Each structure stands twice: as C-alpha cells, then as structure tokens.
Amino acid sequence: MGDVDRIPPPRFQLGDPRWVLELRYLPWPVAWAACFGRPGPLHVELGFGDGAFLAALARRMPAANLVGVERALEPTRWALRRMRREGVENVRLVLGDAFAALAFLFEPGSIEGLYVNFPDPWPKARHHHRRLLTPGFLHLAAHRLQPGGLLTIATDDPDYALWIAEALRDTPGLESVFETPWVHALPGREPTRYERKALAAGRPCFYFVWRRSGAVPAPVLPRIMRGEASMPHRIWEGDPDLSQVAAQLRGRLWQDGETIWRVKGLYRAVEGEGLLIELLMAEGSWVETVALIFRPHGPGLWILKPAEIGGLRPTLALKMGVQRIAQAIEEATPGLRVVSSTI
Questions:
Q1: Which CATH number among 3.10.20.90, 3.20.20.10, 3.40.50.150, 3.40.630.30 corresponds to the domain 5-212?
Q2: Catalytic residue among 5, 16, 50, 120
Q3: CA distances from 107 to 91, 145, 148, 259 (A)
Q4: Which residues of the chain have a pLDDT value below 50?
C-alpha cells in the first residue's frame, strides 16, 4: 500500500444554517424565495473562492438573492467568515458540486445572473474532461437562465478562452452582449483575489458576458432514483486484505452503454484502516467525480458506501458504480460474506 495516498484528517466542521447549506440535505429544486424569506432576483456564483466577489455583488444588489456554490471546505470557511464579518444578509453558501447544484437546485429559467470566475483550465489535453465549462455544462447553464439572464465567465488562460468561446457559440439560446466573444475589461467589476494577481503579473483576462436570447432545449441529466431510496452500500463479514483490494481497483475502467466509471485514485486512512476510492463517473455529457469509503463497520464487518462529501444523491449511475467497486473488492477477497446490501 506504499503508493496509496493517505486521507488527510478533517480540518474543521461547518454548521451555520444561516449562511451554509449542504447540497446533500437540500430539496431538489430549492424554493429560494422561502430560503431567503423574501422574493428577489436570483444570482449564482459557482466556485466563490474567499467570497469577496460574492459579497461585493450582495452589496451592489441588496434586493437580489445571491447563492454561492463551492465544493471545497476551506474556501467555504473563508467565505463564511467574510459574510459574518461584513454582516451580509442576502447570501447563502452551498457546499457541493457546481454541476450538480446547477442541475438540481435551480428551476429552469430561474437565474438572472450566473457567474463563473477563473475555473481551473486543466491545460493538459488528457485532463480536458475535468473542465467545468464543457458544452454540456453551458447547455445546462443556458437552460437555467431566465430570458434575458446573463452568464458571466472570466479566465486568464488563452487556450481555455478559445475553448469557452467555441463552446458558447454552439450553445443554443445564448448570444454575446458584445460584438466579440469576449472583452479584456469589464468596468465596475469587483476583481477576485486570483484576478488581481493575474492582472498584476501582466496576464490579460478574458471576460465573457452572454445573454439568454432564445429557447433552450431541456438538457439530459442523470437518472435520479426514488426520493426514499437509500444511498447504495454493501456490508461484508470477513477480513479483507487492503493491499489486494487496492491492486484490484487501481486504474479499473468499466463501461455500460454511454455510462463509464474509472478509478482515479486510492487513499489510505491516516488513522485506523480503510480506503477512500476516487471514482470518475461519466453518463453522457454529465461527468462527476465521487468518493467512496471502504472501512471497518463494527467487529468483523466492513462497509462500502459513498463518502459524506460533495453533495451526492442516489443516481442510478452511482448505484451501478458502487456495485462495480463492490464486485472488485469481492474478487480481491473471495472469503468476504455479504450481510447487507442495497445494490
């Protein structure tokens, strides 16, 4: 197991219901007017970093309801501190995956302004599938914008800018508010911390502002299981050899029609026994990375289940992915006996 990374311990806990909402606990979709306690134009930032841009929007648009989405804990902590310090009342922070949040938390045609600031460009060609701003994502974004609503994107990566421009041109129902796909300055814009560094270093920034100007067909989304369905899991009795399990899982790839699963990484627990399994799932245009945990579950028992991070819901693809990982674990340790399973 020497080449299996170790899981870092949790660094802090979140739990401020006034500002922070966790994707996995929210209804789909959310009644945002009820959540804020008032109606108002809905503005959404995906990947809010330290929250400075979001807080500036909130100050500039006091009548609007602003939602920030971030999957990482540390930036959420920074932003939460900022909202408390500045007394911002019209912002809610959602901890979870940006694509999933946009797909399931927001009604079609409900967002007045959508902002994506300096997403990771993943410059290597073999990593392009990890980019947020794929054609599938932009189609979904257009569908969630209200007629006349604006999608604003910022990047300092020229190659990514060309990628985004091409994808936007092919997205139904969107048009640039400028004569060109992007501009290099937006007067009155509140720069992000990363943006300030890029400008100080002399790197040009590319700003896209595209308006929903026409009809947008409904995007194809993952198949969600019934609301009462539990998270997929399996419990065994036995004594698995984690080295054999890791060897069996490392680099595995499965495909069923248009759905693909690939094991991206394996991580060993810092304390006690167990593995965290990083699993890439692609279902058509929907690409998501999830974490599964394989760990002890009482004397002589082991459990495989989704980790409680990232705002997962029980999609059919997730259930089938857990099933494939479970089968691989059983191949590595034939002596395991299933005592409970939802897959």
A1: 3.40.50.150
A2: 120
A3: 18, 9, 16, 25
A4: 1-15, 226-228
